[in-house]
């Protein structure tokens, strides 16, 4: 019988939050871009500190990636991409309530 | 393997300027962006459009692609190599359809690998300097069932990535990972598989694999974070008079008490019966009153008796008589 290694995945929220550098890479952006997101309150920090030490939970990773994607895809500024993200999140939540 | 004509995908001529490409991309993105599009094939189209845009908008990548495309046409349309097809995907197993990772990650990874290789070669020609670069992190989406989150099942994930070989040629690498899904994982959360991203170079560690979790639609439950909502059908007399009824939960069947005077839409909360966690989520039961059909003479009589006894006009608020 073929044996296979079972890899344990860990939840980013519970065990291994994403570092600011990892977040920037996952969004294909620079550290400065993440700093702007925090300054503009698109992302909230749970723990204040030097930007180099910031860590983020899953929810913010998905959000940041979407902002980055929308900025790139629609060629809009950060505020517009953040507004689109808020509205899209609201639509998703409403659709989930409707069970669609 | 199909060769993708990026110019055709973006509907621009080969001599298109960067401005033309930018405009064409924006037009198509508005039409096919999966977040806002109503087109049936929006996701697949947008993936191609993004892929084409990523290459054509970057002068270096565009030149490399043009060179590749010229070689392809010179070889009577033979495939240009696996690197130009989508290269990174997961399939859910257990009969679930594959969910596709963003091509972006693959393509960027490929070009970064090429850049790393160039740097490595340059450094090798400068003796005395060590060179080590941690592998890139990879990201993909994964669809799991509510049951997987509840019990923390082990799932096999088929993973296909594209890596450059020593000669800089893209190679498809297939592998299967058996992954233990963390108990209580929620939709939208990410999980991390340490060391399962791209391999490192010069002895450095591999990157991590990040998976964003989505739930497959569940026939019974709607999910909101850790909380679950389920419609619980009850009879009119159970709703009106109250009583004990059985209901399924993720943990098995339990008995719940229906309060007298309940109605359709009444919501009950079973604390801690949602997804596992600290604290666990709740299960909400939304009552749905189901009326028995008046098929038998006895049932018809019962409805008539109810009509006489209740003197009930449900249209009173509409200002009409019963």
Low-confidence stretches of chain B: 75-106
Assembly type of the shown chains? heterodimer
Summed over residues and divided by their number, the pLDDT of chain A gives a mean of 85
Biggest sheet: strand arrangement of chain A: 3-4
Q: Could you report the average pLDDT of chain B, rounded to the nearest whole number? A: 80
pLDDT < 50 runs, ≥5 residues of chain A? none
Strand line-up in the sheet with most strands of chain B: 2-1-4-5
Fraction of helical residues of chain B: 25-40%
Order of helices and strands of chain A: EEEHHEHH
Describe the structure.
The complex is a heterodimer of chains A (100) and B (322). Helix content of chain A is 54%, strand content 9%. The N and C termini of chain A lie far apart (42 Å). Chain A contains 4 helices and 4 strands, in the order βββααβαα. Chain A is globular and about 40 Å long. A two-stranded antiparallel sheet of chain A has the order 3-4. Chain A has 100 residues and is mainly alpha-helical. In chain B, the strands form 4 sheets. Chain B has a 4-stranded antiparallel beta sheet with strand order 2-1-4-5, with helices on one face. A 4-stranded mixed beta sheet of chain B has the order 8-9-13-12. In chain B, strand 1 (89-93) and strand 2 (96-100) form a beta hairpin. The model of chain B is unreliable at 75-106 (pLDDT under 50). Strand 2 (10-11) of chain A pairs antiparallel with strand 6 (190-193) of chain B.
């Amino acid at each position: 019988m073929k044996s296979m290694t079972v890899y344990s995945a860990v939840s980013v929220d519970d065990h291994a939050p994403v570092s600011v550098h990892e977040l920037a890479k996952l969004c294909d952006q620079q550290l400065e871009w993440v700093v702007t997101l925090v300054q503009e309150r698109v992302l909230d920090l749970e723990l204040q500190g030097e930007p180099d030490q910031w860590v983020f939970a899953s929810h913010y990773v998905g959000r940041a990636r979407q902002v980055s994607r929308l900025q790139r895809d629609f060629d809009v500024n950060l505020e517009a991409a953040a507004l689109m993200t808020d509205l899209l999140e609201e639509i998703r939540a409403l659709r989930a309530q409707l069970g669609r | 393997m199909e060769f993708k004509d990026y110019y055709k995908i973006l509907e621009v001529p080969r001599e298109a300027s960067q401005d033309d490409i930018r405009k064409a991309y924006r037009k198509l993105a508005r039409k096919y962006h999966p977040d806002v599009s109503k087109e049936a094939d929006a996701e697949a189209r947008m993936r191609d459009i993004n892929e084409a845009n990523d290459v054509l908008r970057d002068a270096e990548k565009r030149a490399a692609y043009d060179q590749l495309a010229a070689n392809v046409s010179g070889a009577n349309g033979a495939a240009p190599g696996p690197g130009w097809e989508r290269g990174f995907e997961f399939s859910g197993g257990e009969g679930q359809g594959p969910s596709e990772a963003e091509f972006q990650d693959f393509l960027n990874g490929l070009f970064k690998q090429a850049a790393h290789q160039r740097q490595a070669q340059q450094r090798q020609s400068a003796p005395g300097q060590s060179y080590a670069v941690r592998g890139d992190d990879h990201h993909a989406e994964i669809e799991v069932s509510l049951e997987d989150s509840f019990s923390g099942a082990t799932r096999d994930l088929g993973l296909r990535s594209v890596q450059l070989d020593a000669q800089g040629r893209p190679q498809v690498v297939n592998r299967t990972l058996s992954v233990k899904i963390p108990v209580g994982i929620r939709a939208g959360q990410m999980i991390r598989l340490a060391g399962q991203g791209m391999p490192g170079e010069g002895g450095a560690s591999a990157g991590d694999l990040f998976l964003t979790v989505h739930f497959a639609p569940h026939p019974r439950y709607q999910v909101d974070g850790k909380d679950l909502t389920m419609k619980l059908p009850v009879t009119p007399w159970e709703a009106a008079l109250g009583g004990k009824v059985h209901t399924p939960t993720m943990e098995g069947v339990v008995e719940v008490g229906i309060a007298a005077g309940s109605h359709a839409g009444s919501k009950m909360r079973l604390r801690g019966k949602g997804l596992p966690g600290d604290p666990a989520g709740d299960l909400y039961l939304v009552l749905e009153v189901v009326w028995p059909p008046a098929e038998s003479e006895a049932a018809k009589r019962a409805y008539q008796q109810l009509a006489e006894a209740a003197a009930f006009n449900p249209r009173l608020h509409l200002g009409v008589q019963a």
